[in-house]
Amino acid sequence: MPELPEVETIKLQLEKFLKGKKVVSIEVRNRKIFQGDEKKALGTRILGTRRFGKVLCIDLSNKYSILAHVKLTGQFLYKGPELSSKGRLSEKVIGGIPGPHTHVIFSFEKGAKLYYNDVRRFGWIKITKSEEVITDNYIKKLGPEFFKDLTLEKFREILSKSGRSTKLVLMDQEKMGGVGNIYANDALWLARINPRTPASQLDGETAGRLYSAILTVLKTGLKYGGASELAFVTPDGKEGKYQEHTLVYGQGNICPRCKRAKIVKFFMGGRGTYWCSNCQK
DNA sequence: CACTTGACCTGTCCGC
DNA sequence: TGCGGACAGGTCAAGT
Questions:
Q1: Å from A181 (CA) to C13 (C1')?
Q2: From the alpha carbon of A271, which nucleotide's C1' atom is closest?
Q3: Nearest CA to A251 among A228, A225, A273?
Q4: Residues at the strand B interface (Cβ < 7 Å)
Q5: 3-state class of A124 per DSSP?
Q6: Which residue is nearest to nucleotide B8 (CA to C1')?
Q7: How remote is the C-alpha of A162 from its chain's centroid?
Q8: Which residues contact A88 (CB under 8 A, 6 or more apart)?
Q9: Run of H or E including A265
């Protein structure tokens, strides 16, 4: 669920809340989640935030950076003077903050805090030299990204070189960065493409349709502040709304476009795939 | 090399 | 009401 729109939403809020703040302390409650020496961050200020695919990057003033992948259930939650008391916490923040699922607590000046909660503990946070961010094991393998360096031409080329099913290629972060299961399902439906069609079999026009469809669903996801299907919440403790606007993901009713077939769910690569047999050929 | 399955984890939901 | 099992999406490692 944290895909490009969700991580971008987190990134924008963290930028807003943290920029310029001085790191006073970092409490690591779970060593498996936080890798590296957190003391390197103490006394530094937050310069800004970046995003690489689904990975967050928080740049510090001493040429170190904090990288984080929230995977499925990781949550960054901010408490500070800007939020006052009105910000009610989503019930998706299980156990509250701090709580049994809080694994890292960042403290800043004036009592501001950033909590990292993660029920399933799949996520990770690490501190690394800023110049080594792009050679990080995950980031160095990331493919080009939508809205950044993934042009239509490059997109067509990537598809043409893979005989794997189109859906799996879209979700392969080493081929292209940012798209996960929810947006892949919706984009394929929007472009009327069968998720199982081998990527190399799509002609230029069809690939172009898919490219625009992906941009469309990602933009829609951003507009709604991400999809809170599972555990996604924004740092201010609120939920995204895209899950209320999915095209086919999570649906089981008659296809809203052709109204001739039911949306069918099946598994591809172990993940739920939603498909209209009538209009996705 | 391409592709699949299992592991990582726990909360939620569904059926009995 | 309680319990067991399937299921959730993102990646990595191991197996076919």
A1: 21
A2: C9
A3: A273
A4: A 32, 94, 100-101, 119-122, 162-164, 168, 269-270
A5: strand
A6: A122
A7: 24
A8: A237
A9: strand A263-268
Any alpha helices (H) in A77-180, and if so which ranges?
A: 152-160, 166-171
Helix axes A204-223, A152-160, angle to 10 degrees: 120
* Count of residues in chain A: 281
**A206: Cβ–Cβ under 8 A, 6 or more apart, which residues?**
A191, A193
According to DSSP, the β-strands at A34-35 and A124-129 are parallel
Q: Whose structure tokens read 């599972």?
A: A230
Tokens for A37, please give them: 């020496």
Strand B nucleotides with an atom less than 7 Å from a protein beta carbon: 2-12
Non-local CB neighbours of A200 within 8 Å, separated by 6+ positions:
A159, A160, A161, A162, A163
Is A120 an annotated catalytic residue?
no
Q: How would you write the pLDDT of chain A (281 residues) with one tens digit per residue? A: 689 999 999 999 999 999 999 999 999 999 999 999 999 999 999 999 999 999 999 999 999 999 999 999 999 999 998 876 566 789 999 999 999 999 999 999 999 999 999 999 999 999 999 999 999 989 999 999 999 999 999 999 999 999 899 999 999 999 999 999 999 999 999 999 999 999 999 999 999 999 999 999 999 999 999 888 888 999 999 999 998 999 999 888 899 999 999 998 888 888 889 999 999 99
Closest nt to A92 (CA→C1')?
B11
